[in-house]
Structure formats: C-alpha cells, structure tokens
Amino acid sequence: MSKIMSNEYDISDDPVLLTPSQLVSSSKLVRSFSSYLNKAKKRPLFITRDQEIEAVLISIDEYRRLLEEELKIEELYDAAAALRRLVEAAEKEQELLSLDNVLKELDLTREELVVQSEGGEMDG
C-alpha cells in the first residue's frame, strides 16, 4: 500500500487536499499524456513516483491565476512593511522624508521613477 493512501501519510502535515482520482503515477502519465493533460485543465493532477507525490500538473489558466495571487501577496507584504516603518517612525517621532526630497537626493524626477517602476526606459 502506498504511503499516500496508508495511515503513514498524515494529511495534517500537508495542506494539499486531493482525491484519489487526482493521483497519477509518472509511468501512467507518460503512457497516456494527452488524456491526463485534458484532465489537468479541469483540476490539478498529482504525479507520483515510488508512491510519493513528486509534482503537480495544472492548467495554464490556473498557473496564471497563481502568479497573480503571488504578485498580490508580494504587494501586500511591501505595503505592510512600509506601513510598519511609518508607524515605527511615528512612534519614535522621527522626521519622515518626503518623496520629493528623496528624489532630489537621488537626482530623479517623478516621471523617471514611474518609468523605472514600469520597467521601461526613458528617451534620453
């Protein structure tokens, strides 16, 4: 019996919830790739090797959704870090630098900052 389906596998250790129909061995995947690729468009498939989950096959739409979620989380983390710094500065009654003063120190304009944050280049 596989570790995945036996009592040795403790679901509380792994946040991934799956059904037996979502498990496919790597050898079965190779033999019937097209069929499993179609199934992966509907729900993730967990690929096993030696009775251990090794990989997950997901649709491109799901992959894009996960990338968008990752970006949102990164933005939330950055916003939380910035807010924490503001609160710490306010608690210490430190003088905060204005964006204009920082840009002046870096010899940048607001327009250059926007272009850089968008990954573009300014025409020189």
Mean pLDDT: 82
Share of β-strand residues = 5-15%
Strand order of the largest sheet: 1-2-3
Total count of strands: 3
Structural class: mainly alpha
Q: What is the first-to-last residue Cα distance? A: 67 Å
Count of structural domains: 2
How many individual helices? 5
Poorly predicted regions are: 1-7
Principal-axis shape: elongated
Give a short account of the largest sheet.
3 strands, mixed
Radius of gyration from the alpha-carbon trace, in angstroms: 24 Å
Order of helices and strands: EHHEEHHH
Helix content: 40-55%
Describe this structure in words.
The chain is mainly alpha-helical and 124 residues long. It has 2 domains: 11-58, YefM-like fold, CATH 3.40.1620; 62-117, no CATH class. Helix content is 49%, strand content 11%. It is built from 5 helices and 3 strands. It has helices at 26-31, 33-40, 60-91, 99-105, 110-117, and strands at 23-25, 45-49, 52-57. Strands 1-2-3 form a 3-stranded mixed β-sheet. A hairpin with a 2-residue loop joins strand 2 and strand 3. The longest helix is centred in the middle third of the chain and has 32 residues, at 60-91. The model is unreliable at 1-7 (pLDDT under 50).
Primary descriptors:
single chain; 124 residues; YefM-like fold; three-stranded mixed beta sheet; 49% helix; disordered N terminus; mainly alpha; elongated
